Structures are given as structure tokens and as C-alpha cells.
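Q: What structure does this chain adopt?
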Amino acid sequence: MAHRPGRCGRACFVLTWHLSWEDAPAPVDPIAVVAETDAWWRAWSERSTYRGAWQDEVERSLITLKALTYAPTGGIVAAATTSLPESLGGVRNWDYRFCWIRDAALALEALMAAGYVEEATQWRDWVMRAVAGDPEDLQIMYGLGGERRLDEYELPWLAGYEGSRPVRVGNAASGQLQLDVYGELMDAIHRARQLGMAPVPGAQPLARGLIEWLEEHWREPDDGIWEIRGPRRQFVHSKVLAWVAMDRIVKMAEASGYGGVIGRLRRMRDEIHSEVCEKGYDAARNTFTQYYGSTQLDAALLLIPQVGFLPASDPRVVGTVDAVQRELMRDGFVMRYILDENAADGLPPGEGAFLACSFWLVIDLAMLGRLEEARKLFDRLMAFRNDLGLYSEEYDPAHRRLIGNFPQAFTHLTLIASAVALTEAAGAR
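A:
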């Protein structure tokens, strides 16, 4: 009896949600809606003007950023999930369904690099609306609508992803003091100006208010970029970004001819720079350290040349990159820092490799002219995408799988930045 191939069919399923006091939405034709959606995304992707290396990978990341954007406000959410673990069965399970100010400058760069001016402007405007008000009340993250109260609580009746508990809603880090966010916000305002984006009314008064607050508080210990749940410390990265805030306001003041306080701000900028180089640098090992007096390293130190604190060619930067490769590399990935009993984060050890850190190393290597190393690492990182070209927050080398909240905007942002850096470095040769 001859073999008869099976028939291929199509089954449709429509999931609809609405508020209980509203009428149900009108029925939709699922086949037509899928076709319309496909056409919309193809048209959006064709608007990209990015022509650098790894074009397909960059455009996939741009699509991800667009998909993580809340259309009514322009806010870009860090990830679409909560409590996907950083270590299977562990307690490092956080809610990432919020908008981090830390993503601001990177997102502007990424979107503008591909010609997505409208999306970049909407994101910039969301950031400016969210942070308006008393500089002392600046948060590291906000809700999609600019909400400030993001109280964290646990859902003990849920088992968690593969037994990873607790499941959390909200994020207590929203109430932390992270001095680096002032630098990231000022850098975003400065970059928006450089990129030729239309100015936002009130941006300069906001910037001056933030700087005045930072002048009084930059010497304080804080919770750092990694949102530690332990004691506050004098984190080097936080001080470097405080320097960035001063540097960017000085540059904007110089460009606009506003010279009344430039002298004072320059002196403050220089004071921060001198303190970091004195207290945050280990001369014996030729590397910057995680915090003043520490012997611990931190992948965030890789940002020192990227933000312009020191040139990539500075021997202290070269030494720091070498130290990170020597002491923080595990299974070919850059770890955030060493998770042991001496770690600063106040949590039990155990997490995967934070993927953005490895992309930061790609950028530094490109800036140092070590293009072969940079490309090799970048190509290796490309191999860990899932079948849809998406990344989560971390990668677990032991179990050979992506872990953490998904998809992660920060990972895709640093991928784009790495591709741009490699393209520029190759062109400079």
C-alpha cells in the first residue's frame, strides 16, 4: 500500500482579555491579524539604517527593544518576566517588569544608530517625565507609566520556575541609593543633544538640580550598580558615574555658553577623578577595584574607558582589562564579580554569567585595538542565543542554558553597542 503523506492544517486560537466592567472586544479574524502583524513588523524592520557588522543580529535586537516598549508611554521594560532565576533553585529571583534609567543612554544610542528617531525620542521623553521632581527622589527604575511605588512582596503559594523561590512582585531596589544613575541620566541628556534630538523643555533646570544634589552627596556610600542587598560601600563604578554626571553638565554648559558655574563644576569633576584614581586603584595589581580598599574586581570597571573616565590606552585601563580576563573569566564568560563569602551583595552565592559583562569586554578589547580577541568573544556570545535570536539576562555554563528574566533588554543593548564598537574599530584601521 502506497504511503500517503499526512495533511497539514492550521488551528487558530485567540486569547482575549478585558476589564470586567467593559464590553468584550469584537471578534477578530486570527489569520488576518497574524498577516497584518507580520507585515507591520517587516515594514518597521525595513526602516533600519544600520549598515555595520552583524546586521542581522543587531536588527533582531532592535526588534526586541521595540517589542519591550510600552506604546502608550514609550517606556522600555527591562524584561517581560518576573522571578526567572539567576541560579536554578536559588533565591536570586527578581521582578524586571519595570523601566531602568540605567538603560537610557544605551537605548538612545542603539535606536539612533539604526535611524529609529521616533522611538528614541519617545523613550527620552518618558525618562524626562519619570524623573521630573525633586532630585533627591530620583529612582533607578519606574513603572511603565512612570509609577514610583514598586513595593516588593513574595507569592509563597507559587512553586517558582523549576523550584526557584521566592516568586517576587515589585522590586525593593527601586528604593535604593545608586549614585551611578545620576551619571547615566546626565549622559542620556547629553547624548540626546549630541544626536540632534529636539530639546525637551525643562531639561537644563532638571540637570542643574540633579548636579546640585550630587555635589552634596557623591561622597556617600551607595548600593551600587548590582543592587546589593548588603551594606552600602564606596563603589568605584558609582564614583566614576558621578564623575560622568559632572563631566556631561560641564560639556553642556560649555556648548550653551552658560559659564556661571563651570569653574566650580570642573573642580568637582577633577576632585572625583582624583579620589577614584587614588582610592579605587590597586597599584600593586595594576587594576581598579570594586570599592575603596577592596581586593575584589567588578566587571562594571570595564565601563571606565567607555564613559570617557580614562582613555583605553591608559596603562590602568589596560591593567584592569587584563585583571578582569585573568580573575573574572569563568568558562569563557565574564562574571559580575566573584560570588563567595566575601562578596558585597549580601546574598547566598550562585548565579550564571551576566551576559552584558562579556559584551562590555568585547567593547573594551575593540577600543584597545585587540580586534581578533574582540571578534572571537563576540562570535562566541552569538552562539548562545536561542532559536529566535533572543537572550535572557544570564547564561548557565554548567547546564548550558539561558537563565534569568527574558528577553533581557540590557543584554540586547550591549550586543548592539558591541557590534557598533567593532564596526568603528575596524573602520579606524
